[in-house]
Amino acid sequence: MQISSVWTSTIGHRFSDKVREWTDSHGSPPAWNPEEAPRGSIEYYQELLKHDLHRHRGRSLAAGELYAFARGNKTYEYLGNLHYAWVDLGSPSQTFLVALDTGSDLFWVPCNCEQCAPTSDSSYGNITFRNYNLSASTTSETISCSSNQCFTDSSTTCSSKTADCTYKIDYGSGNSSSSSSGIIVQDDLYLTKEGTTSKIVYIPILFGCGEVQTGDLLNGAAPNGLMGLGSSNISVPSMIAYNAAITNSFSMCFGKDGYGRLNFGDEGSKDQYNTSLNSNP
């Protein structure tokens, strides 16, 4: 007796509702979708082109390699006994010294400031900070509530589909509580392959344009922004791994001399000890 079988599969377009449902159910980062412009319009194709330029910039990353921020993997113990790293955003690039936090997920920098920490202060030493200028970057995009990139998260809110996707994130508790709030934007993050200085790549990421900061964020803690390194799909390591197709892992080491390192795509060695991130809210 001869038994025959038929194998079938369904191919879904990346902008379809089916594919969006699948990515959402598997915990993938929010996928971009050109739904804000009428299909077939000039604006629709302009958005497609802008998105593809973002996407193809990151295709030169390779699995198994270590990557760092464009200015290197070094971290610094600085204000408030936190560790910081230099990051570059936008086109042309704008540079920020951001605090690193494994206890939160969202990345934000001061932007469109209504209430932000001063850009210069005696406690900063000889460093003068800058605020992110959304309109000065040719690759920046604001995220609206109608976009599926306005991720479903406890920190994001929407007043209407035509409004900007907004966020508010709280840190600490009691007398030491602080918060950052603003709108969600997308722009390029600059990375380099470990061991090289000339190979710069660009990854589109979502982050907060921090318009209002409160509490300790106005008094020396993370005056130039804060990068959440948590395990959710909106954290920078997750977005780097998703957009660049590298290992969804990172390593961070702090030295006793106040310096450390941060690398993305690091799988570690087989004989090393590991400490899991605590995902309990």
TrEMBL record:
Residues 83-281 form the Peptidase A1 domain. InterPro entries: Aspartic_peptidase_A1 (IPR001461), Aspartic_peptidase_AS (IPR001969), Pepsin-like_dom (IPR034164), PEPTIDASE_A1 (IPR033121), Peptidase_aspartic_dom_sf (IPR021109), TAXi_N (IPR032861). GO terms for molecular function: aspartic-type endopeptidase activity. One of its GO terms (biological process) is proteolysis. It comes from the Eukaryota. Belongs to the peptidase A1 family. This is Peptidase A1 domain-containing protein.
